[in-house]
Predict the structure.
Amino acid sequence: MPVAQTSSRDLIDRLNDMRRDPINEVALRAIQNEAEAIKATDALGAYTVLGGIACLRGDTKAMHEAHQKALRLAPRDIVANINYASSLLYSGLIADALEWFRRTHTLAPHDPVILNALIETLAGVGRYREAQQLLPEWEHLNPQQPRLDTGLIQEGSRFLNTIGISDDEQQDVTQTIVAALAPSGKRSAGDVIRIMQEDGVGDFWLERLVHVPHVSPEEVVNLNEAAAEKIVAMPNESIREHIIVRYTSSTPDGH
């Protein structure tokens, strides 16, 4: 009896689930074999999947090549574009990822999934002002679904305006956080952002706790020293005085 061929959407969903977990090479090889098998009937989907696989393996060159092959087949395909954006972000290429998330939103301005991905990414890299500008669009598309990150976005915008830090400079801080992890191959398991004000009326601070699982106390110390060295060298004094970055070996839920 013929076996139904796996669809590229199924493979993409399985890959996206793997982005949140430790990489399983056996599972990746299985997905790769299935992607190769559908090239003749769904080259667009197959190359999109292969780009995601290369991303998870840390092969940036192969990631670009596969995703770009998909996009040459269908430059305006939403699934191909958003998956390239996601791979760029996962690879730590923040500026490129943002460009591609914005491009995808331009292609599908009324798609709430794409808009949500763009807002989440902007907020995640600290571009709170740009994220805040998109909140009215979200409210228009999803009037019955308030965002959980609205408070952080609004508070973050107020912080940046008060302290005098641009979205570009805040994005540079995020890139510094990612770059410090790159040599070890480690990834953040999630950040916790806290914006504090002394006695409710004094100076503001933004504290960013970066949770990195499976690292030793010595590695945490080295990460904190590497990030601090980069941040101290940034030209805007406000960054040095009002932004605190700390790596921890726990996860956001405390484990």
About this structure: The beta strands are 191-197, 204-211, 243-248. The domain at 1-103 is CATH 1.25.40 (Serine Threonine Protein Phosphatase 5, Tetratricopeptide repeat). The chain has a mean pLDDT of 91.
